[in-house]
Structure formats: structure tokens, C-alpha cells
């Protein structure tokens, strides 16, 4: 399911992330999908990049393979269960290390103070519906 247009998570909520990405350390991609729960966090703009309308930030301690975005997980889902329905709230984009840079390689689990980022689906509902309906929608 899709979330309501403009929905913004307030933090301290949990969501499920999954992916087939590289587990880091030069290992090959796993033969099975990795999955794990992450906690959505409200970010401190002095510590991390912030834009609550476009990005969902998540963290779990300790970060482990399955609960962290790794190389190859970009585009993967971040799902919350609402009244028993799976709702796609985010699309994996990468993770931020302590130096506030966005990374797409390696694995966030290798950096204990990293914060992961997902593109907020609710920000793009009009575009998604336009594409599904094969409309000529070109807005952002």
C-alpha cells in the first residue's frame, strides 16, 4: 500500500527494511535477502542533514547486517505495518557517516554512528499515481 500524501513520521517508530545488497568487507552479495527492523529517528540538524519532507532517517543499535543499508540496497523498501497492511513509506538511498557525507558503498553496519536515509514516498504520491495512471504528470 502507499502512504497518505504528505505523511511525515515523527520519530521513534519502527519499520522493516530489506535488501539483497553486499554485506561489506568485500564479501559477495548474500544468497538470501537480508531484513531487519530500524527505528525512525528525528534528526538533529546540527548533527545530520535534515529535510523532514523528503528524507526518512533511521538507526538501530547495534547496527548489524540486516538492519543496515549496504551497497546494493539502494531502491529497496522501508515498510511499516498499519492496521495489518504493509505500507511502503521509504525507498533506500544510502547512509550518512559521522562526517555528514552520503554514502552508497560499503555497509552502514561497519560504522556504528551512521544514520540511514530513505526517500520519503509520501512526498511523491502525486507523481506515483500519475505514472500508474499513465498520465502526463511531470511535476516534482
Description:
With 140 residues, the protein is mostly beta strands. The protein has a single domain, classed as Thrombin, subunit H (Beta Barrel). It is 6% helix and 31% strand. It has a 6-stranded antiparallel β-barrel with strand order 1-2-3-7-5-4. Strand 5 and strand 6 form a beta hairpin. The two termini are 21 Å apart. This is Peptidase S1 domain-containing protein. One of its GO terms (molecular function) is serine-type endopeptidase activity.
Which stretches are low in confidence, meaning pLDDT under 50 for 5 or more residues running? none
Strand residue content: 25-35%
Q: How many beta strands in the DSSP annotation? A: 7
Strand order of the largest sheet: 1-2-3-7-5-4
Topology order in helix (H) and strand (E) letters: EEEEEEEH
Total helical elements? 1
CATH topology: Thrombin, subunit H
Roughly what is the average pLDDT, rounded to an integer? 76
Q: Which class in CATH terms? A: Mainly Beta
How many discrete structural domains? Answer: 1
Radius of gyration: 15 Å
The 3D shape can be described as globular
What is the correct CATH architecture?
Beta Barrel
First-residue to last-residue Cα separation? 21 Å
Largest sheet: 6 strands, antiparallel, barrel
Structural class: mainly beta
**Helix residue percentage:** under 10%
CATH homologous superfamily identity = Trypsin-like serine proteases
Protein name: Peptidase S1 domain-containing protein
GO molecular function, one term: serine-type endopeptidase activity
Domain Peptidase S1: 1-133
InterPro entries: CLIP_Serine_Protease, Peptidase_S1_PA, Peptidase_S1_PA_chymotrypsin, Trypsin_dom, TRYPSIN_SER
Amino acid at each position: 500500500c502507499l502512504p497518505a500524501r504528505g505523511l511525515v513520521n515523527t520519530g521513534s517508530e519502527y519499520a522493516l527494511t530489506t535488501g539483497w545488497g553486499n554485506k561489506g568487507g568485500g564479501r559477495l552479495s548474500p544468497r538470501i535477502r537480508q531484513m531487519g527492523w530500524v527505528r525512525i529517528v528525528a534528526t538533529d540538524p546540527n548533527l545530520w542533514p535534515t529535510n523532514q519532507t523528503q528524507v526518512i532517517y533511521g538507526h538501530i543499535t547495534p547496527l548489524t547486517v540486516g538492519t543496515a543499508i549496504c551497497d546494493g540496497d539502494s531502491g529497496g523498501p522501508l515498510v511499516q505495518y498499519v492496521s495489518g497492511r504493509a505500507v511502503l513509506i521509504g525507498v533506500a538511498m544510502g547512509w550518512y557517516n559521522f562526517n555528514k557525507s552520503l554514502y552508497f558503498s560499503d555497509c552502514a553496519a561497519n560504522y556504528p554512528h551512521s544514520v540511514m536515509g530513505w526517500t520519503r514516498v509520501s512526498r511523491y504520491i502525486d507523481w506515483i499515481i500519475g505514472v500508474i495512471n499513465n498520465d502526463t504528470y511531470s511535476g516534482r
